[in-house]
């Protein structure tokens, strides 16, 4: 039995990747707990949302959350019930849980997908209307439906008492999402620093340029057979979460001076 | 201000029934209940529970506190700590 994870900021084709991996014999790949892209079905793994922010803001909680919601016994039970040897959990929360997951599961390998800052922020920022994929921070004045509010409660936010927390209320949605991009990816970089052989970081842009190579790199890292990549990509094609409304903010060249400077600092820190 | 868990159970029960529009939940709310048990306690009704508790106890809750509202034991312990 093997358990592996994929982590990212979100808006990195993770639904597509989960579906592609799930099509391989012997692998069950779940996206945020659900298999087969069906969010109305019973989740295969317990959902994680509020735990994400709680674990980020209080690191002492992380090991307990992993033991309770992604523990060895649970993974073994899921592998047995799904009749697979390998379980892959794809979710934004795996960035926060990365270290604890790697400690808890000795054989676990993690793939982090890092999208360029501008692409992520533009894709994740909602200024008006209901956001069906509320990955990023919305405009602070945008009314939220219940689902957006609940998902927002689990989204990373600066820890009380920090400099970023003090500045938070004055930040625009773009500033907040630059921060979200920086923090999520900093966690992935930290995980790779601690576990260089078990953490693979892939640039999201490579998926667009070379989907076969991208999927092959993931399978290689997870030590899985690589036959059937083209077929898997074909099957996953219908599972791309494109935002129907398109981008609601302009390109980086149109952002304010403060936003541009903050973005440059974040890019320098992350190096992607 | 320590308070009885029964008061919290009644509050959560009422919030879940109102949000779900049912007279009786699929399972009773007990001192061990958590999100998903009863099944009406889902991500959408979570906000109703959170808001109802904040209003009842006039607690100045932030979204950062939401993690403590996923089960009756966690909620009870948290409220006893802050109220």
Shape descriptor of chain A reads: globular
Tell me the domain tally of chain A. 1
Instruction: Find the CATH topology of chain A.
Output: Rossmann fold
The low-confidence runs of chain A, each spanning 5 or more residues with pLDDT under 50, are: none
What is the beta-strand fraction of chain A? Answer: 5-15%
Please give the CATH architecture of chain A: 3-Layer(aba) Sandwich
For the largest beta-sheet of chain A, the strand count, sense and barrel status come to:
6 strands, mixed
Q: Categorize the overall geometry of chain B.
A: globular
Give a verbal description of the structure.
The complex is a heterodimer of chains A (272) and B (83). Chain A has helices at 14-22, 50-57, 62-69, 72-81, 94-104, 117-124, 146-154, 163-168, 173-194, 204-209, 211-221, 229-236, 257-270, and strands spanning 2-8, 27-31, 34-35, 86-90, 110-114, 199-203. Chain A is of the alpha/beta class and 272 residues long. In chain A, helix 3 packs across helix 5 (94-104), helix 6 crosses helix 9 (173-194) and helix 9 (173-194) runs parallel beside helix 13 (257-270). In chain A, 44% of the residues are buried. Chain B is mainly α and 83 residues long. Chain B has one domain. Chain B has 3 helices and no strands. The model of chain B has no long low-confidence stretch (mean pLDDT 93). The interface between A and B is medium-sized, with 17 and 10 residues.
